[in-house]
Design brief:
The protein has four helices and no strands. It starts with a helix and ends with a helix. The protein is mainly alpha-helical. It has a single domain, classed as Up-down Bundle (Four Helix Bundle (Hemerythrin (Met), subunit A)). This is Secreted protein.
Length: 128
Amino acid sequence: MKRRRTIALAVATAAAVTTLLTGCGALDKAMDCVKTADAIATSVGKLQQAVSNATNDVTQIEESLNSISTELGNLENTTDNADLAKAVDDLTKGVDSVRTAVKNGDTTPDITPITDAAAEVGKVCTPG
């Protein structure tokens, strides 16, 4: 009887620890999402500034796009959320579109798809 209680207690403890660790993992992922969404928002802000100053230095646009791409790579590695995956995909397409426009000589590309998709990433990553 004592052995059964010990085994039951061990199983219950293991289950509780597993649940706790799984919960922490989910919390860590959520926090990573929030941090990355914030970094993307900062990069998009820099992109907006770079586009408005493009006549002075077009390379700032490319630097901002590279920064957004890096953060998107980080975000893709931290989640399996379908809504977030869609927003990341939309943001990636927007970055690619702007990158192509800049390479084709457009110094004031339309970045609306990027700002819209970045806002969606922010919504998906916001806890609550």
